[in-house]
Amino acid sequence: MPQYERVEKVRLLVVDDDPPIADLVATVARYEGWAAVTANSGEEALRLSAEFHPDIVVLDLMLPDLDGFGVLDRLRAAGTMVPVVFLTARDGVADRVAGLTRGGDDYLVKPFAVEELMARLRTVLRRSSGPGFQRSVLRVADLMMDEDTREVRRGDKLLTLTPTEYEVLRYLMRKSPTVLTKAQILDHVWEYGFGGRSNVVELVVSRLRRKLDDTGTPLIHTVRGFGYVIRQAAE
Amino acid sequence: MPQYERVEKVRLLVVDDDPPIADLVATVARYEGWAAVTANSGEEALRLSAEFHPDIVVLDLMLPDLDGFGVLDRLRAAGTMVPVVFLTARDGVADRVAGLTRGGDDYLVKPFAVEELMARLRTVLRRSSGPGFQRSVLRVADLMMDEDTREVRRGDKLLTLTPTEYEVLRYLMRKSPTVLTKAQILDHVWEYGFGGRSNVVELVVSRLRRKLDDTGTPLIHTVRGFGYVIRQAAE
DNA sequence: AGAACAACGACAGCTTTTCGACAGCTCCCT
DNA sequence: AGGGAGCTGTCGAAAAGCTGTCGTTGTTCT
């Protein structure tokens, strides 16, 4: 029984009329091992959906031809039950979307952070793939993060993290024991287009350390001149 | 989305309006067994991309005609998903470039060290060639270097190397059991244009030895009047 | 033995990292 | 709408760590 025998790749359809954004999402997804295709208009989306049979769809609400809702309606009319994650502008129709995200759908406001989008996609996928979806729990040494309850504990001690701290920690844990550069962390955890060229990452790491290492040995390590890792301290 | 199987040599397109730099990169790549072509302008880059179908592109941001971003846009518009590694001046547009690593592309600041560029290219290539990207681990005798975790161990013992030491060791290990001259090491590991006419290489090797050979038999051997090798037992 | 080459200790300058203090913002409660 | 609490990012100073130069000592070759 070969270890490498994995289930089929997740199939993702990204619909956004802004090619850079669509590509960004598709690329990140591919690096996660998914199969991704992009569509830049509603019509193209419908066509690709029929051909590609995605497992999940990322759908921008603002499209040149048909709008996001229109696409959704026609998808559903065609009998497709694919879960959809919507993208909307900050102020736009966020309220209406919220109402429409029945079932397993979800939505995210632009500009978003790629890691957050990926996390939502994973969640939606997990929920929609049949019954008895198992919890998603990340572990590194005695540090545990439950992605459903957002509970983080070091040993028995429950930690209270701010949203940013949580995201940075999740990214570090998900990639552990790979060393990540500050640029990678910034690019994945902060929303695209974030200007702050300062030492935010260092700062959040510093705050995280104070909370994490309060109990026990240090888990987040600095790799000088390169970046950060989270892992059990090696011998 | 076709997944290009790479059985052939890696195909690299280098785009830089400074011919010496472009040639430098192309030469090193060819020496690694890759197929490399150079372009000195944006237009030429687009033309060559269409003809040559590179697996990866090194793209200077400052070009006479179209700038780097323009080239990227037109590549993407043409439906090419080739990964790109950007080159930028130290202070220049580094900010605007940041944000590109999130897609999986990467960037490097000029002047750079050739080995570092090659390492990044290999990483990007590895990440972008499908899922299940295997770890890259170098081994020489009981010395092991994991390029993802940046972990280096001699036997069980974990070593802590500084960035320079790490780079020199990687280069030695990657070329092992070939003997490298000090000039080669200097030229590959230090940024081009490095002034140090001194004995830096000897010094770093010396420091490496102290850390490596602390346990076990010497691995880095001096080839008097020529250079250094790393390998099991010499002569 | 003498010359060339190599090893490496010590030091000073410099770069990177850490983190306290603070101010703007947002969100929530009343 | 006002007040307050908590979150985020900026700034700057201090600490920590890295690198290259110099110069002395050791080694090898002729």
Provide a short characterization of the protein structure.
The structure is a homodimer of 235-residue chains. The first copy, chain A, has 235 residues and is an alpha/beta fold.
What does this structure look like?
The structure is a homodimer of 235-residue chains. With 235 residues, the first copy, chain A, is an alpha/beta fold. Chain A folds into 2 domains: 118 residues, Rossmann fold (3-Layer(aba) Sandwich), CATH 3.40.50; 94 residues, Orthogonal Bundle (Arc Repressor Mutant, subunit A). Chain A is built from 8 helices and 12 strands. In chain A, strands 2-1-3-4-5 form a 5-stranded parallel β-sheet, sandwiched between helices. In chain A, helix 2 packs parallel to helix 3 and helix 6 packs across helix 8. The longest helix of chain A is centred in the middle third of the chain and has 15 residues. The radius of gyration of chain A is 19 Å and the shape is elongated. The two termini of chain A are 33 Å apart. The N terminus of chain A is likely disordered. The interface between A and B is medium-sized, with 40 and 28 residues. The first copy, chain A, binds a DNA duplex (30 and 30 nucleotides) through helix 6 and helix 8.
